[in-house]
Specification:
Blueprint (H helix, E strand, L loop, with lengths): L1 H36 L1 H4 L17 H4 L3 H10 L13 H13 L5
Helix pairs in contact: 1-5, 4-5
């Protein structure tokens, strides 16, 4: 009985590690994708580029948008921003939206 309990704890601990590790890996992948696809217009820090009239992702205006709204913009494009629905997977777009959330201005 004791070995069964120990085995169960080991399996549970391994499962928890798998839940945590991929999250940080996905965050790194999203940050890399942001650098590759977004930074040229929105800046490496997401602050936008006034000359290109791109939005500051950390601004309250952007951050108050819902995930669905941001997803739609990335997916379908908006104004001069191209659509990424055929270039990125839904998971990659969700990762970009999550990354945009990390750019919120700290008060």
């Amino acid at each position: 009985m004791n070995s069964t309990l120990s085995r169960g704890l080991v399996i549970a601990a391994a499962g928890m590690a798998l839940l945590v590790w991929p999250a940080s890996s996905r965050a790194d992948e999203a940050a890399d994708l942001f650098k590759a696809k977004c930074a040229m217009c929105h800046g490496a820090d997401g602050a936008g580029k006034p000359a290109m009239k791109t939005r500051d992702f950390g601004s309250a205006d952007v951050q108050k948008q819902t995930d669905a709204e941001l997803t739609a913009i990335v997916t379908k494009g908006k104004n001069k921003m191209p659509a990424y629905e055929t270039k990125l997977s839904k998971e990659q777009i969700a990762g970009l939206v999550a990354h945009i959330r990390t750019l919120a201005k700290k008060n």
